[in-house]
Design brief:
Oligomer: single chain
Strand order of the largest sheet: 10-16-13-14-12
Number of strands: 16
Distance between the termini: 66 Å
Number of domains: 2
Helix content: 10-25%
Shape: globular
Length: 221
């Protein structure tokens, strides 16, 4: 039986995998091109067979949409800014080269009106600038994050443990993407103005559409 286990603690987040069968062998290979290949040994002819290669798609590339950008393979362009954020540069209109990312449409002021917007079906951001507490509930996690002005987002990475576990980010959110079949929620800190619902946020798709219109117009000049 092949088992995959998610390990979350105060120092790191990672996956482990193992097989209970002694008649099973696998190996991992990092290619010069930066791809990770997983191979399984065919126990009949003793030949190595490819099992999985990552990245699988465009959004598997690390940080492809930049800070506060979200990648989705079901949309075009693949990158767009999270709600409450806008492109860092209005000149960057190539949907396949968006690594400069996004910035807040409205700055945070650590006021009472600040809160969090829930994004569902997400791959959580890179955890390099995150801390984990395994004893907190999701509600406790929200309170602790809101009380710290440097806390930009929070989530419960342990979806199978009745909501226990608090992962908090401090700084930019990198490598976020949409997983349609994933039930992981990410709560991102927003300014009070954004939570009022009065702002019409900018995203990559609208910028690209505007650029495309201008480009087509220039052909007739």
């Amino acid at each position: 039986m092949y088992k995959i286990n998610l390990v979350v603690n105060e120092k790191e987040v990672y996956y482990t995998h193992r097989s209970d069968s002694t008649a099973f062998s696998s190996r991992s290979v990092m290619t010069p091109g930066g791809k990770l290949e997983l191979w399984q040994l065919n126990m009949v002819n003793r030949e190595w067979m490819p099992d999985l290669t990552v990245p699988v798609d465009y959004c598997d590339n690390y940080g492809i949409c930049g800070p506060y950008g979200s990648c989705s393979t079901s949309t075009f362009p693949n990158c767009e800014c999270l709600k409450g954020f806008e492109l860092k540069s209005s000149l960057e209109v190539n949907p396949y080269n968006s690594t400069s990312g996004c910035r807040r449409s409205r700055p945070l002021d650590c006021g009472d009106g600040e809160g969090f917007v829930k994004f569902s079906s997400m791959k959580l951001p890179d955890t390099q600038n995150a801390v984990y507490d395994g004893s907190m509930s999701l509600r406790e996690c929200e309170i602790v994050c809101k009380d710290n002005c440097s806390c930009t987002a929070y989530a419960n990475p342990n979806m199978t443990t009745s909501g226990v576990g608090c992962l908090r980010w401090f700084g930019d959110l990198i490598d976020v993407r949409v997983y349609a079949l994933n039930e992981q929620d990410l709560y991102v800190r927003q300014a009070a103005f954004e939570l009022s619902g009065k702002v019409n946020t900018l995203n990559f798709e609208r910028v690209y559409s505007s650029y495309n219109h201008c480009y087509n117009f220039s052909l007739f000049l």
